[in-house]
Amino acid sequence: MIIPARPFILLAQCALVPLLAAQTDTCRFALSGQVLDAHDREPLSYAEVFIQTLGKGAVADEQGRYRIEGLCAATYRVLVSHLGCESIEREVRIVGDLSLDFRLEHHAEELRELEVVRDRPDENVGQSRMVLGRDAMDRAAGQGLGELLSTLPGVALQSTGPTIGKPVIHGLSGNRVLTLNQGIRQEDQQWGTEHAPSLDPLSSDRITVVKGAASVQYGSDAIGGVIITEPVELPRDAGIGGELRGLGQSNGQGGGGSGMLQGGVKGWQGFGWRMQGSGRYLGDSEAPGYVLSNTGVREAGASASIGYRDHRRSATVYYSWFQRELGILRAAHIGNLTDLDNAIASGEPWYIDDFTHAIDAPRQTAQHHLLKAEAGYAVTERSRLVATYGYQANDRQEYDRRRLGRSATPALDLWLATHTADAVLKHWIGGRVHGKAGISAVFQRNSNIPGTGVRPLIPDYRRESIGAFIVEHFPLSEKLELEAGARLESAMLRVRKYEDDNTLITPERDFTNAALTLGANWTVRDSVRMRFNLGTAYRPPHVSELYSEGLHHGAAAIEEGDAGLGSERAIKGTIDLQGSWLDGRLAIDATLHASRIDGYIYLRPDGTRLTIRGAFPVFAYTATDALLCGADATINLKLTGRWSWRIRGSTVLARDQREDEWLFLMPADRVDNTVMARWGELGEWRSLELSATSMFVFEQQRAPVGVDFTAPPEGYHLLGLAAAISRPMGNGDLRIGLQATNIFNAAYRDYMDRFRYYADARGFDLLLSVRYAFGRTA
Amino acid sequence: MKRASNPIILALLAIAALVACKKENDDHQHDTNEEELITTVELHFHQVGGGEHKHFTWRDIDGDGGNPPVIVADTLTPGMSYEVSMELLNESVSPTDSITSELQAEAAEHQFFFQVAGADVMVTYNDTDGNGDPLGLVTIWTVGAASSGTIVVTLRHEPDKGAPGVSSGDITNAGGETDIATEFPLVVE
Predict the structure, then answer these.
(1) A455/B33 Cβ within 8 A
(2) How many CB pairs under 8 A join A and B?
(3) Could you report the predicted ipTM of this complex, rounded to two decimals?
(4) Is the pLDDT of residue A18 over 60?
(5) Which residues are CB-neighbours of B96 under 8 A, at least 6 positions away?
(6) Architecture in CATH of A2-106
(7) Contact (Cβ atoms closer than 8 angstroms) between residue A422 and residue A395
(8) Cα(A223)–Cα(A135) distance, rounded to whole angstroms?
(9) What residue spans define the domains of chain A?
(10) With contacts defined as CB-CB under 8 Å, which chain A residues touch B175?
(11) Which of A35, A232, A471, B108 has its CA 20 to 30 A from that of A299?
């Protein structure tokens, strides 16, 4: 632990030098704080704070935080404005650094439209959440959703080699994390650990992560949390804007790009449209010392939406398509336990070839279509009905290395079609209490496409569910708002499974579950806010947990379902503290969480079985009671006007209570330190940002005995550097970023990577990203 | 506002028509058998220059799970040399599928390995693939003095036949994916 600490101690010392040499002129004060919505105290992203007397100002960040420096001891008139809000003017007397929060009211006539904007699904007042905004998206052209989100504290990455990554929220992933894509539950075979989410992070401009049990709002599966790629608000007025992004990276020798255009229609006030497309193309990744053969990725995505809205009604249609083909590390395709033991013992992949962009078997292809139609109607002045229909089709093929040219025939070929329908009434009860009530229905059908020549891993099934929920907000005072809600949902599962002797069985299961939520949002003072949430969530077992039976190739294990398993039921509490101190120089965002999951389903070792390929360990899906708790935090410290220091860390403790043992595959503790310097104006350039990040991931000491094939890998330390610069160009805005990750090309393996048995993780990578935003978007 | 809703509905219908009707599964079709399942490994022993025949069989007709495999191995005679030909079958289907012919067709991508423990038996390759590398469908077993032990017969798919020791039958550096790994008792008496 001593050695890894050294780099950031050094960095900290470097950062302190300019602090000691602090400026001494008289105009050295800063005004900082947050711009908030007066109604629900939500931060108003990108609000403008302008000092008229000086002709200077600042644009707030995503969290509504702003900072204006170089102020003298004087009285200023400050103008605060935000789209859709009543601008305010305040007289501010500066005698030293001052922290001041502003609250804006909605335009009276815009109130209803603002409700449309605020239709973004997450409105829980007590729920702990984090937002990834535009700057984070700039790096997304080179990353999948999982990698992108894993930069957030409390979110980790469960990976299967360098190409497949799934987000883990507070230790839970897969079917225990719900993804809402454009407000629709994403249904894309998340039961498989090697099935990455089939969606393009760039199809949205904002991703929110809810870190709590949230079945009341979102339905089943929201046990660990919810990932929300938020619908983009369409323009209403004429004029065109757009954005182009490009990214190139050295590791994988490829890159990605995306383009977006949006606008309104002249003479058709209220109409708006948006089109977006993106792609990514990467060859084999490289670990320090060798090529990770057959780990190429290619992705393409496109989306289009049109919409209309006026004072009373709104309608949008959205369609997106996403396709991904990815290679699976060739050396991870093995035959039996002996092969696995050999792979672990040798320390290097047994198959290493020259770098190539080509993808060979084993590989996966997945396509995902989403069609969404939504209509809203203001029933009365203050209540609004929104109906949403979604259709999704997920088409997945997995190819193995097989004999006699069968490698070109998928070994798994699944078609999952899902219809979702929701109706939500946003309403007010009296003058203060307001909330949402709704019903939702899901109809889903999973089909194995014949012709694989392999017994299906999971059977065909139909799933239907219907649920109803209500959530109400009770503002008790300016400072305290409470929230309570409940949901009842019933699901039916009809399975068609062919047994080993080819007899057809058609079991049916019903699952009825209820969920409750209680939340509070307490504004301790203007700059300090706390959120409390106690929520329950449920998840009926997936078909794979009930009926799968067979050999899992990459894992060298036989996995057996248990048709008798019941629903998982979770209760989770979160406490969230967000605040700033020392005149805005110190900002802390911390979350504490604890959850208990009854009937937690996991794979438990259940002896070995002799097959013609040799002996295999058998793992049976078993239910236990799990207890998870942990903490994560981000601390931002402004050292001087230019230098800042950010520390992020997270830890999760997860126990199997029936076995009195740790739970398998829980993320190890991690801490990252970033030192950042920012220059406001540099000649033609508007801003320059430099940063150095040191990330330390500890060895996972809390691993169960007798479950894994090898001990958890050692901890590791990665150092990264980044620079970003931006300037106005034409009628737009240009941003160029350069980022180097794992600059010492450290060889390491991560506990959460299923391919850690076979190969090291990716080595050094250099990424160059360019974004140009123009027109109404800039 | 009547005018406004029409293009939306039209667009909706158009997109729905494009997306919705791709493929639906016919309920009566399903993949009933594993095309690549190997249920049976047979070793046919022919005495070199003589008339003695022996058999080893490793059979698990219902595949993984279900009933345990049945393993049969004749005793070998001391001082004898046998030419051993291997036969791999999928007996879960009717008619029985011969995997041996698939291996012959893809000889360069397969190799058998024989690991003897305890018994005084030496195994050498007696066939090659198209590149002149060993395959192992036909081998010569040279039996020494009375002894007993085990032999593990392993079939690797896509091994690295050029790796050190692999062509002489050492599995250590072979890599690839194990298609079969069957252990037989080996008794010489």
Answers:
(1) yes
(2) 145
(3) 0.79
(4) no
(5) B89, B90
(6) Sandwich (2.60)
(7) no
(8) 29
(9) 2-106, 115-775
(10) 331, 350-351
(11) A232
